[in-house]
Structure formats: structure tokens, C-alpha cells
Amino acid sequence: MPAVLEIEGLRKTYRSRRRGVRHALDGFDMLVEQGQVHGFLGPNGSGKTTTLRTLLGLIRPNAGRMAILGQEVPDALPAVVGRVGAIVESPQFFPHFSARDTLSLLAGAGGVPQARVEEVLELVGLRDRAKERVKTYSLGMKQRLAVASALLKDPKLLILDEPANGLDPGGIREMRTLMRDLAASGMTVVLSSHILGEIQLICDSVTIISLGRRVAFGPVEQVLAAHSQGSVRVRLEAVADLAAAADALTRAGVQVTAQPDHLVLAGVDKPAAVTRLLAENGLYVSELVPVTVDLESVFLELTATAPVPGQHRQVDESTKVGDGGQPSVAGGGWGV
Ligand SMILES: Nc1ncnc2c1ncn2[C@@H]1O[C@H](COP(=O)(O)OP(=O)(O)OP(=O)(O)O)[C@@H](O)[C@H]1O
């Protein structure tokens, strides 16, 4: 499969007198093959929007290379831009225009035949409300209009930042079907989302970014399989003992992800060793079961953003269990 999108070693550094140097992108890589629905995932502030804006020529990177449809960007952007549809951050529409007028105006400006307006209205499910003013639309309807505007030029690559934002469950399901249909027709779709269950259902492959670096990528099943080896869920008689248990297990070399009422341990080949270790520390297990990992737990583990009882993780902090309970800032986010 040819690569539709390639990013290698992308760096973007922001400098400010007050906050010093901030590495929004710290040698980030990404590869998306043709006809895939590709999920782009990362916690708040991890660099997703910076990546997409850099790709679209809106931000100048400090280093790295990028190619869209086999052409190096930003140099070749004028040549490829007609084949890329993108919504990065919510677009603003004239509130007094209807969806049909809005799309008609955009089609005219982009040299797209007017017949395409009706096609995209139908595709995103706005046909019956197309005559009404945008200011009367719900958030989800505006989101559908945004997707319709990105689809106008029948792009080869569609980039959507949080397309399910504001959609109701029915709308999310329709968006899922639309993305799959578009990919089946040969379009490549890159979407960022925080709805990880949705990404798992919809995407063929994913890239996970944390603190400006890629921490996982590949087909969804491969990413899940790579992280499901020997995972077990542990509950204790006393929830208050979880932090102590996480600490003891981490010191013994077990990889621990803390959830509010249980721990998930990775790479456990002998569950009995876990119960023994905890019992020796006066901590008593009430449940120990193998878990099939989902994308959410992989995400929380790789980005170290699992909630820890009693702590309020701040943006830019990666809360590592077992480091004395103190939130830590992993390399790459702040500082030089
Ligand atoms: N213009 C700017 N000046 C300084 N720092 C910036 C600027 N734009 C982004 N950043 C910083 O770069 C980092 C990455 O931001 P970015 O918007 O790419 O994150 P994101 O992954 O899209 O987050 P979210 O999921 O919250 O949208 C953040 O720490 C952010 O504060």
C-alpha cells in the first residue's frame, strides 16, 4: 500500500520568556497508508493539532520532513491541496447562511460543481435541514456541515480533528459508517479523537502521540496484541491500599496502571507471584483476572495518563504510578 501521509522527525519548539522552551513536537513520526481510517490519538496538549497544522502549512516546523500523497510538503502544498480535505479546529460559518448556501459558496470558490453540494448534504445527513440558517443548528449539525465542507472537493486524504465532537450516539454511528464508506471508496481518513472506543471500532490503524513523540503505531489489532501479553486486573479488599500495592508491584518490576478502584498489571506470567508479593506486604487480593486490553487502557498506559486516586493530573503531566505518587513530567514536553 502506498503511503498517503509520511512524517519523519518532526520538531516544533515554542519559546517564551515566561515559560522557557516548549517542545510541542519532539521528533515525531507518522505513516498512513492509502484507504485506511487512521486514528491519531494523544492526551490534551500532546501535539496533535500542532502536527496537523504543520502538515497543512499553517505552522513552520523547526525540523523534520513531511509528504502528502508522495509529495514533499510544505513545498508541494499548492499541488496537493486540492486533494486534501481538512477540518482542524472548528471552522466558523456565516450564521445567517443556510448549510446549502454555505456549501454552495465554498463550492463556487473552490471550482467544485454545484451538484456536489447536494451529494455531500446527503452524505452527512443534513439534506432535510439544508435550508435552515446555520445559527439555528446544534453543535452536532455544525460538525456535520464542517465535514460536508471538507468533502466538497472529493479529497483523496481527509483529515478531521475530533469529528464526533458534539454528535449524539446516533450521529456518532452515522459518522462511523460514513468514514468506513469513504475509506471503502479509496479515500484515506485521518481522524483525531478522544473517544477511544469509537477509534477502536472505526480505525484500521492508529498513531499514539505523547509529549510530542510517537509512542505506538500500527494496525489496531497489533497495537492491542502488543500490550495484552499477560495483563491482569487486580482488586484489593481495601481500595485505600491500591497506592501501596502499586508501589510494591512497581518496585518488583511489574508494569502497573492504576485505575480508581483497581490496578492493571502487564507482563504477568505467574499470577500467584502477585498474590504472594502483595500478601507479604499485608495487602490482600479480592480479585485477580486476566484482561483483554482495549485501546483506552493501552492509551492510558502509554501516555501515563491513567487517573490515580487522590491526584488531579495537570495538563503536561504524566502521572507515573510508583514514583512516590508524585506527578512527573516526562522528557520532551517542557524544558530544554
Ligand atoms: N502558539 C503556541 N505557543 C506556545 N505553545 C503552544 C502554541 N501552540 C501550541 N502550544 C503548546 O504545544 C503543545 C501541543 O499543543 P497541541 O495544541 O498540538 O496539543 P493537542 O494534542 O492538539 O491537544 P488537545 O487534545 O488539547 O487539542 C501544548 O503544550 C501547547 O500548549
Automatic annotation (TrEMBL):
InterPro entries: AAA+_ATPase, ABC_transporter-like_ATP-bd, ABC_transporter-like_CS, P-loop_NTPase. The lineage of its organism: Bacteria, Bacillati, Actinomycetota, Actinomycetes, Micromonosporales. Residues 310-336 are annotated as: Disordered. Gene3D superfamilies: P-loop containing nucleotide triphosphate hydrolases (3.40.50.300). It comes from Micromonospora olivasterospora. GO terms for molecular function: ATP binding; ATP hydrolysis activity. This is ABC-2 type transport system ATP-binding protein. Belongs to the ABC transporter superfamily. PROSITE patterns: ABC_TRANSPORTER_1, ABC_TRANSPORTER_2. Residues 322-336 have a biased composition (Gly residues). Transmembrane segments: none annotated. Pfam families: ABC_tran. Residues 5-236 form the ABC transporter domain. SMART domains: AAA. The keyword Transport applies. Keywords: ATP-binding, Nucleotide-binding, Transport.
